[in-house]
Structures are given as structure tokens and as C-alpha cells.
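Sharing a chain and its predicted structure for anyone who wants a worked example. Both blocks are below, sequence first, C-alpha cells second.
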Amino acid sequence: MEKKELIVFIRNPENKKVVTAALESGVSALLLEKPESKKVKRLAKVKTIAPDGDYKLGEEFVIVEIKGKEDEERAAKLLKQGKKVIVKTTDWTIIPLENLLAQGDEVYAWVRNAEEAKTAITILEKGVKGVVLDTEEVNQIKEAGEAIALAGEKVELETAKIKRVKPIGMCDRVCIDTCSNMTRGEGALVGNSSAGMFLVHAETESNPYVAARPFRVNAGAVHMYVKVPGGKTKYLAEIESGDEVMIYNHKGEGRIAYVGRAKVEKRPMLLIEAETKDGKKVSAILQNAETIRLTRPDGTPISVVELKEGDEVLVYTEEPGRHFGMKVKESIVEK
């Protein structure tokens, strides 16, 4: 599932409470029906959809109120013309949205509360592109923001058995410090190949020597791939402050985290190899330290220094083939 957009309809551009709540909830833009973008931009740096906005209301974004079949047909025509269509219904229902999602991807739902937002982003599995939230209730804005943030990309994780753990000496490794705290069972997907990645657990666990750092994933050697939003990957060496990375739990449910910093340091490393029940091989080069952990099928972490042949850990596999981080179909062998 792609990243969803939260847009908040602003009735009063000088209502600082609503504008602030929208910003704190991860809004991608504010919608204003009048040319009043300057008023909200005095309060914060934010994109606007308005007659005088960053995105022109009535041109790039078009609001279509669905009262009957003719309105639905007009919305479908606008989608085919490349417009972003905000679907507004007098009596909120998913039927027009279902019909329009079959016509194009740039469908936005006008919703009145967080519950409607949650429904809209999951219609027909892929959901709408985003929602326009029409409320001045701060708690509803925040709840909708949380729902949008959690509407990440779900992947199918599988179990693999450890085949080999081999010390390989000093390498450059990347430690990703995100702007979000993670909980037990969460981490990032990294691997020597985009076709096979381990769920490397966040540093949520403390021990007598080191405090927990739940915002951190010690992700491994600079050459490895890491999953980022949109089904894409990046080399760990490319990760920098402000980037988005995907965080997954042991059920494969993903969310976006923003990178605060990425530290590259020389550390002793381990080559870790595993194999799924259907013979797919997964490998990674991770730091040789007790605080670096993989993830068991039940979500509990296991330190790389404790790994032994036959231990079961969570991995993600797919067909190999990437071009600038995007999946492509090609014949490729990675060893």
C-alpha cells in the first residue's frame, strides 16, 4: 500500500488551533476554498490547495459532489484527464469511491471524522490516494493523522533458518537513528540482496552495559539494501537525515519513519546466511555486537552473537532485480 495523504479543510485560516493540529498530525496540505493561503502560511510552512495555493483548486485539484450518476461520470472523466479528484458525497458512502477507484488512482475522499478516514484508505485494499478531513475537532484530526501514518505497506514475512554465521573483520556500517521510537517486534528490512532481507530489530532492549535506544536500527554494511516507502529500496550508504525508511513489525505491517541521522563507522562485522523452507537464500553483513538483533517469528529479538545454525528468524523475499531502487523484471544473479 502506498503512502496516503492527509489533507485538512480549513474553514477559518486564522484558527491557529486547527492549523497546528493539522501540522502536528502529518498533514500533506491544507485545503482552502478562498484565496487565503498567505494567512495559514503566516502560522507555518505548509503546502496549500486553494485558488492561490501551491496546488490550484479547480485546476489540479477538483471537488466533485456526488448526487447522482452524472456526477460520478463527470468525476471519472476528470480522472482520465489527469486531475486529482476530491469526491464529496451528501450522505457518506463508499460506493462512488469504489467505482471511481477503478477509473484512476488520483481519488481523494472528503471525510468528516477519523473513522471515515480509516474506511476510505482501505477501500478495495488499495484505498484512496488521500482524504480531505472536514472537522475542527483537534482529537479527530490527530486520530486521522495516526490512521494515515499506520496505513503503510504490508509485506509477507516468512521464516528462514540460519545456515551460517561467519566473522569477516572490519567494515563500514550504517546506524540509522530515526525520529520515531519503535517497540519490541519492530525493525527495518535489510539485506545483501533486495531479493532477500532480514528484519533487523530496533535497539529496544537494554542490558547491563548499554541502555535501550528504541529509535535506532543498527542496519549493517554500507552496500546493503534497506526498504523505503513505495516498494523501493536504497543502499544504506545513501541514507541521510530527512529520508524516509520503512519500519515493519513481525506481522509485516509497515509504517514510515523519518531519519534523524545516519552514522557510518568502522566496526567488526558478521556475515549471516539463512534459507527459507522453499530454498530461498538470504544474507546480510551486520555488526558483530550483542546489541544487534534479528527477529524471531513471534516478534522477540535474538542477538547476532547468539545465533546458531537452525535458529528461525523473519525474512522478506522477492524476485531479484532493481534499477535505481525500483523493482524491474530482469535476469539477475547476486552472490
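Comments welcome. The mean pLDDT is 90.
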